[in-house]
Amino acid sequence: MTPLKSPHQSGIIYACVYYHHHIVLDNHPLQEMAETRHFQLPIVAQEAKEENGNATNQVITELGTVKYKRWICILLCIIFLLCGQSVAALLGRLYFDKGGKSKWLSTLIQFAGFPILVPFYCISRPKMLTANHCSIGSNKQPSIMMLGLVYVTFGLMSAGIGFLYSVGMQYLPISTVTLIAASQLAFNAFFSYFLNSQRFTPFIINSLVLLTISSVLLVFNNNSSRLAGVSQVHCAAGFICTILGTAGSGLLVALQQFALRKLVVRQSFKVVLDLVMCQSLVASSAILVGFFASGDWKGFSGEMDEYGLGKFSYLMVLIWTAICWAVFYIGAVGLVLEVSALFCTAISALGLPIVIIIAVFVFNDKMDGIKVISMVLAIWGFISYVYQQYLDDYMPKTENTGEISELF
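Structure (tokenized):
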């Protein structure tokens, strides 16, 4: 049995224990390490917080730079589209107004200008960071056969649409053709709803209704829309062909957006060039077949000799029309890639006043009350759509900032 300790012995033991804990351990390396870590933890936490804050600010800055560059690209595409579309439409009307008669040749020059785009392949440009990426899970480039099928389909569709527009341009005033073409926004919205899950808001619905009414008004105004020497039958054919061409154009743009999202993994400026050039090559080849099969090529020399502005002007009209259409296609496909098919179509509608006002002075197109109302409705519809784009781009900004902060 352990003997009981005396009070003196207990005091000695207590003193030893106190000395061991409060003197020896206080100078022990483990104690110093613990105290050091105790003071270092808040510093490490503060440094980690600062690093996360810096990383968040860096990401926000980079996103702002990307957005800034993206809108510069969008602005350039808008300029290409509006300038190319307006000048090409006016030159196309000038071709028929001064003696041109070949619908096949008029269609051919809508696509034959694509070789001027070849030098753009030499321009090295980094990958575009677009807001509209391809579908998630698509990690492989599509096969050459699949891309070839897409390009051929789009090219043949473009050739048919171009021919329908040429018929309308031959038999109708350019102001009428342009106003009817504004309904492409309604057709494109309809097809984009099924192909690209386009959502409809009150402003977009308002825009579509106004643009549809704008085009319908022209149907009841066909007497003042008839060119000199054009029969009622040809005028009706021009209306029908223009409406069909507009519907086909709306479908084509929606399909282009669908193909770019689903098939193309790396979306870049080269993708735009590939699509425009391959599509134009197929369309030009198909139109050349029709041009020679119809026998229009036989009257080419005589048409040039009899042209109202002379041979040189005849060639200049054809060449510059082809160049302007090529510029237009670059802008159009670029907008489809960067934003959406519906946005591209809405910007195309912005060119309405430009073409119509110039046509009144250059080609003496009649500008009666119904055409004025139609143009006002078309512009109103365009503004309604642009306002919706403004809301979509700026309203979710706070939500996006919150999402970024959650990443860190």
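Confidence is low (pLDDT under 50) at residues 1-28, 33-37, 124-138, 397-408. Residues 64-123+143-394 form one domain.
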